[in-house]
Amino acid sequence: EWATNVLKPFPLPGHSPPLNEFIPPPECPVFEPSWEEFADPFAYINKIRPIAEKTGICKIRPPPEWQPPFACDVDRLKFTPRIQRLNELEAQTRVKLNFLDQIAKFWELQGCTLKIPHVERKILDLLNYISKLHLHKGGFDAVCRERRWTKISVKMGFAPGKAIGSHLRAHYERILFPYNLFQTGANLPVRHYIEQECFCIEICLRMSVTEVKKEPIEYKDPAVYEETVLNELNKPPTNKVDHYMCLVCGNGTAEDRLLLCDGCDDSYHIFCLIPPLHDVPKGDWRCPRCLAQECGKPPVAFGFEQASRSYTLQAFGDMADSFKSDYFNMPVHMVPTELVEKEFWRLVSTIEEDVTVEYGADIASKEFGSGFPVKNGHFEITPEDEHYLSSGWNLNNMPVLDGSVLTHITADICGMKLPWLYVGMCFSSFCWHIEDHWSYSINYLHWGEPKTWYGAPGYAAEHLESVMKKLAPELFESQPDLLHQLVTIMNPNTLMNNGIPVIFRTNQCAGEFVITFPRAYHSGFNQGFNFAEAVNFCTMDWMPIGRSCVDHYRELSRYCVFSHDEMVCNMACKAELIDVDLASVVQKEMTVMVQEEKKLRDKISKMGVLQSRQVDYEVLPDEERQCCKCRTTCYLSGITCVCSPGKMVCLHHPQDLCSCPHGNLTLHYKFTLDELYPMMAAVILRAESYKNWLSNVEDIVENKGNKKRGLHSLVEQAETKAFPQASLLDQLRKITSEADKVAVMAQQLLNGKRQTRYRSGGGKSQSQNELTVEELRSFVQQLDKLPCNIRQAPLLKDLLNRVDDFQQHSERLLSDESPSPLELQDLLDVSLGLDVELPQLPLLRERLEQARWLEAVQQASGRPETLCLDTMRRLIDQGVGLAPHSSVERAMARLQELLTVSEQWEERVLALIEARPYHSIETLDNALQEVGTIPAYLPNCLQLKDVVTKAKKWLHEAEALQLGGRIPVLDSLSELVLRAEGLPVWLEPLSRLEALVSDVQSWKESAAKTFLLKNSSFSLLEVLCPRCDVGSGHQKAKSKKVKEPAQISKKTSTKLDSVCDVERALSESKDSASAMTALAEVRQREMETLLALRASNESKLLSAESCSALSVCVCQKAPSGAMVQCELCREVFHSSCVTTAADLEYGQAWLCPLCQRSRKPPLDKVLPLLASLQRIRVRLPEGDALRFLIERTVQWQHRVQQACTDGVLEKVTDKVNTIVLWLVSGKDRTKTILLSQSCFPLSVEEMMVEGFLLQVTLPETEQLYRYLLYKLAPPPAHSTPSETSTEQDQHRKSSSDSEHSKKAKKSHKKKSKKSKERSEESKRASSPSHTSSDPAASDSEEDFSLCAAPWCREPEGDEVNWVQCDGSCNQWFHQVCVGLSAERAEIEDYICISCTQPDYDRD
């Protein structure tokens, strides 16, 4: 419910303010502590207390950097605010409103609606009207008689001369006069007997009389009068028709003027009533008796209502900002605080405008979280803000700091020990009040608009209470503890005008603290939406105030938040731990408390209360140990009776418990008096210990008496017992510090630790102020004047004796021509313990430096192997800085001569080493002989010596390399040549060895050109050696599906598992025989592994029920389309995945890319390589491998010849085993014979396999393969072998006849590149259709075009079909090389494997 009236415009700036405008009180003090002062909250508050407590409130601005994060759980915070009607807050305005409510209720019960009159466009202040009227003696009659209505109008603020007085009189007669009669009881009816008819006539005539009405006579006791009249009215009427008779006149005439009460049904004539009514009321009417009952009910205590809805912080803020901006018709941040303040006091003082606001007050931080960060809270604090968790200004910490006596209260008191949260809006206010137990309070505004405060000092509290009771007595009559309810406010101007000494104000902005001092009344309001947090705290100066507050509460029968006696006893139980200043305060509190308790217990004992029982009050709830009379919380003692269970009284009110004999009462006590006295004694001891300490320190400071005392023990006592840091303690620390310095100096003089060692010769530093011997004697004499004993004093006399001994010894050494450095150093070391000025020290240091230098020169000369040029230069530089002396000069001359000779030889040797061309070893050896006589360490000469030694060793190894006609190994030869490059010496055999290495490299290049394919990934050694990786390329992807290859891979590996192992074995072999043995072992493994691989691949094809279940080829997919089989490993490949030679004739074997490892040159090209290597006479792994290859080839040729001679080939069976693959194409299944192989003896198979393995082209290999093929599968009778191969083995190559070539997508004609002999042989083996050639084709520019396929088979013939890749490379390929027919090339796009598989390497 918001403002019910239209918002009024405000006066513009510069206009004269209206009457009774609010005048702001003076500002309270504002403090801005430094960081040092801000570190201790209570120390700073105690510092400003003498100033701030005179104003009651003060404001503290923290340092600008102190900005704690807002840690409240905003999402969870939901509260129900209080409703505040502003004009009900102000005491005098509330009295006026209550008065208007009473009048309105009076007239409502009279059947009329009250309409407050307006005079001069202002609502008539009826209460002020009555007060002004009663100021004149005689009241209404006197005013009328003396015609003072004009004076009353002037006093009420109306202008004279406008006949306002007559209006006021008329309003008074109409509205207030009947109510005044009701209040005095003059309107209550008095019954008359109806014996004279003239009575009614007189009453009727009285209604028309215009004479002035008289005030009713006031009775001395209205209550008695009212009771008497009511008893008269309650008597049974004499008339039988009493319900229709007037209870005043007893007559039933004039029925149209007879009123019937709507409450009790009694009848009254309107002219019999006092005052009489002119007409019958239209509404419900109550008789005087019912009116007295209704209006005589006690008023309900005033308090704030709770709002009908709950708010979140966001919702409340939106509402608050909307209200303020609408009210002032401007943005909230532009409304001046002065304007809000004046409008607030105007609104609370008017009865014409009813503005309602809401205030979220007393929200428990324990439930929703404090605005300050707390440990183990939900708010995640950053590391740089962690110090706010323990800050004393964090309101969660302040009540429980060491300086706060609230720490001795065990309970968590919400609002006192636990902060409360306050969410305000514009005009929401907190009324005049003082804190519970008259404690301190501190309020921090986290954010939002300012909060305006008003405060009065504590000494003016009683005066303020009396003024408010005087100005609004009606409120305090119904609520004596009104100021404790926080529901009443009063204008500070009004209070100051009525004698309050002074009231102060301040505007608390965000980030500022406001502190209220004990018993300081304070109030205020919020300028707008803000969030504040407040808590109480109590320091030791509050203790006597707190006890006075408990006595005050006892008089008012007000509830105590905590027990003051309990807090004092808790502190007394920890007397040894509390502060000494607090102990002094607690001592006084304990004394007062114990004396009062003893007095009360004696009084109870004299009354006859004999029963007693010890009770632990701390475990009882507060409501069970409250005095039922004064509501004080009992702690030390209480009185109970069995007749009143659950009730208790304090010892001040034993007579108010019950009416039982005093012997039935029981005294409950916490401590006996015998227990209280030791507690008080402990507090006194704590306080008295400080006094004793103070006396001793004063004696020391004032230097009284001759008694020596322990200074450190006094300081330690002050620190351990937490004595206050007074100026006396500072003086004691200063005296103790001076005594410590004297003791330290004396100790340093004794042990020599005051100096640092002189870097070159020991002794004391020259930069320090040292004592002379005379000053040392004076220092010893001063030790006796200290107020404490210095244990080093007896030892200082011994120091003087040692100084004399030092002087005598130093004179003797300085007179010696060649003093020992050791003796000089020892004497200087002795001076380290003599903290006095010694004039002999400079001379001793000079002689020590000279002696040490001569000793260093002598030692360096005695060790020539370490005497380098830098050492000689350093010694010469050091000698230059020494004081002149004959021995030093002689040593310098010898050292300079040696340095000159050494430098000359160093330069000469360096020139010999860097000379080009190199010198012979003889020249260098002669120079080395001359250098050996110099007694010094010369790096270049040593380098020359190392070079000569290495050169001699190299020559010896070069001669031994070919000693006895041995063939050197290439590695040894290369290593020897490499070593020679780092020797700056001319070596005669080097050129010959370099030529050998060059010849070997040339041989290796020639062998690589002979054997290696173009872009081959194999090295020369891999090609020449037997294969070590048989099956690795085929079986890696098949090991999980094929059983036999998996078993092969699990075969135990030998030491020659890779080419690297073979190369290392050949290099480490002693001779060619051992190398051949190693290669024979590799060859045996190669044969076994390859035969197993062949068997595995063939069994895989035989055992497969369906082609779709197989994984073949390099792509590991099922067989499809044209397939080709390797004759060596027996693996099946797609024609599109591998290279198939288009011109491969029937009877020629096809090998897969993994088995075709080299060019396989003819044997006649290989033998010259071996012969040239033998001429070079250098062993290398490739040469041993080539030799083994040739021997293996010759042996294989012999085996083939032997097999022909023995007739082994004739025994081969004619039975052919065919392997059938099912190729699925759509829904049709067709059989295709993919390959065929005869079953022949194992020896023949091994012989054929080894022939394929040889990296040499032999006619026996082709003849053996053709013989076996023709014998097992002879070609057709009417076709050449080439045609038969084309017809039966479609997997080997695609048909490329002239008809298809015409339809090809892209085709080229290529001239044959083979020799004449090859052409003739091709003509004999080819069909007649391919014998013709095109002369134009031979002259084409594209005759020598190259196929981009790495496995190009170089097809020959009259027409060669080509296809271009439709991918990204656009390269040309032979159709036969990529397994593509002419029909497919015409219909389909072709994309090469390089474009379809980017990771594929053509090499």
TrEMBL record:
Record's compositionally biased regions (Basic residues): 1302-1316
Highest rank taxon of the organism: Eukaryota
Record region (Disordered): 1276-1341
Domain called JmjC: residue spans: 387-554
Composition bias, Basic and acidic residues: 1288-1301
CDD domains, per database record: PHD1_KDM5B, PHD3_KDM5B
JmjN domain mapped to chain residues: 28-69
Domain ARID, chain residue ranges per copy: 93-184
Keyword Nucleus: yes
Protein name per Swiss-Prot or TrEMBL: [histone H3]-trimethyl-L-lysine(4) demethylase
Gene name per UniProt: kdm5ba
Domain PHD-type: start-end pairs: 243-293, 1110-1158, 1344-1398
